[in-house]
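Researcher: Quick test of sequence recovery. Tokens follow.
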């Protein structure tokens, strides 16, 4: 889990980095996450498995699942793992990068606590249901598409609460369907799907693959990381790895991908076209060279956590 949190901080996804450690450990201390989990696989075919996460940390369970998908893909060309009985898994980008490092295309998705309306609805029925797609590049800076199927993620609301900035209209509504722009009120309001019916359709795709198919909790059956301290999460995930070398020589793939990138970037001579993940890799290089900045609110929360379990943070040592 530490490795997962650090990776997200390194690429600038600080809302999924060590900032999450206090709430994750709080749930573990209350036995809402199983610290001694023993996840178990059930083989469906040579290319597919189920994984019962035994209510372990989603970051750990997810890594086991994607690693197994990669191993199946190495043996057969394709690997798929559906996960039930898990928890919040962080960013899908972490897992698809695992596949990309093995010259594979990767897909990761997860359902989550219901706080998003269906297209045309006003009550929350689905989670932000993120999905991620990754593809390797020759320079190692993989394409990383990682997005919520809602108009914004819950972590974005928490960021706006911290800064006091208002939210744009069209992202959050109240029980009457009226727009909400106050981030404090938005925390208990209903999010809208991204791009209306299109985002709703993508959210349903994630729910089908990661919950209906796997046997995980569906929609309102999934517990909230921050709100539900009387039940476990029952989150579900789905991972896919596809071995590119089964389709073509890796050199040919890199040549074709680079050609596509050239076409994309030539659409704006000012150089404004960035591939998903490019900004993340630039932040990675800077953080690797200069260290990961930790904002005061996160540092203070980690100090409190460290004191409560009698350990020292690096800046206290």
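Model:
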């Amino acid at each position: 889990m530490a490795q997962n949190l650090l990776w997200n901080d390194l690429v600038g996804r600080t809302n999924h980095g060590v900032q999450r450690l206090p709430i994750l450990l709080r749930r573990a201390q209350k036995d809402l996450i199983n610290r001694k989990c023993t996840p178990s696989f059930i083989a469906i075919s040579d290319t597919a498995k189920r994984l019962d996460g035994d209510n372990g940390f989603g970051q750990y369970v997810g890594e086991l699942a994607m690693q197994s998908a990669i191993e199946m893909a190495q043996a057969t060309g394709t690997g798929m793992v559906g996960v039930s009985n898990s928890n919040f898994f962080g960013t899908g980008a972490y897992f698809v990068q695992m596949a990309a490092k093995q010259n594979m295309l990767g897909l990761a998705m997860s359902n989550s606590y219901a706080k998003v309306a269906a297209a045309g609805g006003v009550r929350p029925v689905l989670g932000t249901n993120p999905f991620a797609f990754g593809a390797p590049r020759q320079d190692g800076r993989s394409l990383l598409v990682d997005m919520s199927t809602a108009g914004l993620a819950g972590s974005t609301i928490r960021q706006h609460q911290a800064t006091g900035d208002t939210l744009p209209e069209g992202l959050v509504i109240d029980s009457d369907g009226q727009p909400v722009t106050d981030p404090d009120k938005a925390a208990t309001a209903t999010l809208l799907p991204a791009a209306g019916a299109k985002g709703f359709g993508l959210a349903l795709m994630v729910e089908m693959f990661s919950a209906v198919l796997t046997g995980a909790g569906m929609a309102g059956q999934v517990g909230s990381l921050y709100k539900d301290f009387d039940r476990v999460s029952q989150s579900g995930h789905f991972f896919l790895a596809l071995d590119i070398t089964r389709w073509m020589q890796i050199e040919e793939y890199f040549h074709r991908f680079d050609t596509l990138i050239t076409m994309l970037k030539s659409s704006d001579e000012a150089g404004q076209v960035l591939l998903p993940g490019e900004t993340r890799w630039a932040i990675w290089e800077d953080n690797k060279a200069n260290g990961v900045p930790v904002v005061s609110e996160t540092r203070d929360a980690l100090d409190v956590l460290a004191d409560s379990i009698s350990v020292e943070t690096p800046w206290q040592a």
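The CA atoms of residues 36 and 56 lie 8 Å apart.
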